[in-house]
Amino acid sequence: MDVLVFIVSGTLAAATALIFAAMGELVAEKSGVLNLGIEGMMATGAAMGFVAVSLSGSYTVGFVAAAVLGCLLSLVHAVLTLVFRADQTASGLAIGILGLGLSSAIGKSYEGRTVAGLPELNLGPLSDIPVIGEMFFQQDIMVYLSIALIFATWYVLTRTKLGLVIRAIGESPENAHALGLKVRLIRAGCVGFGGAMAGIGGAYMSTAYTPLWAEGMIAGRGWIVVALTVFGTWIVPRVAFGAYLFGSMSLLELSIQAFGWNIPSQAMSVLPYVVTIIMLAVISRNLAFIRLNSPASLGAVLKIS
């Protein structure tokens, strides 16, 4: 039972950074813009968030600073692709590399330092419920905000006029422009939102999940976010499922150690990435379903004047 509690509660925390970044990337891709710079934006957010928390002592300041810097990086990508019509893949990769370098520069003097860590949210009697309370009601506030973000993203994209506009632009920016929609402005807003969420996800890694700064701590999670969005077929619940699957797999090494099984640590380190990609590939094997949900203009150069 203790192992079960550890896995469930740990999965919620481990998936939180991915949820923030994945929901942001999902919105950006729904508008038709592919952002491959998520890894760099998460790394920059992690460094900026850690430094801001260290200097101010405020986690709110840390997350806001990370969101702003992530947003600014993503807006560079938006300008390159929407104004100068640069290739989205090349621009995203360049911004990602820039973000990794920027994170190294920002956090260089803080290497190896720690912060107190984001405290658990006090939910009163709910936290004292046996087993259930330990699993679900002894988490920090960002875990609950990430869950709220899943529902908010789903609702906006599927039930609101704004979501309809975003999806219409992602399907055919030319037709949307002909109808009078501000395609560049809306796409830039979606990309900026995606960058901000990636920054927050990175800041969560460095100030809450593992409250320290170490270069390379994002460890490929930005690429997992991109994979989750595609293999999740741009559907919010599927993308969220992939994030929680990766979170649970990342805890597998500690769980196996609790049972006393002797498995090489290198194999356990790579397992979350392998299992997550395999599982998402299985659930998205219907190519017709993928094409049905894929934004038609995703990755294409904007042709409107």
UniProtKB/TrEMBL annotation:
Listed InterPro entries: ABC_transp_permease
UniProt entry tagged with the keyword Transmembrane: yes
UniProt-recorded Gene Ontology molecular function terms: transmembrane transporter activity
Keywords: Cell membrane, Membrane, Transmembrane, Transmembrane helix
Subcellular location: Cell membrane
Name of this chain's protein: Nucleoside ABC transporter, permease protein 2
One Gene Ontology cellular component annotation held by this UniProt entry: plasma membrane
The species this protein was found in: Candidatus Rhodobacter oscarellae
Classification of source organism: Bacteria, Pseudomonadati, Pseudomonadota, Alphaproteobacteria, Rhodobacterales
Transmembrane segments: 6-24, 36-55, 61-84, 91-110, 141-157, 185-206, 218-236, 243-264, 270-288
Keyword Transmembrane helix carried by entry: yes
Membrane topology, record value: Multi-pass membrane protein
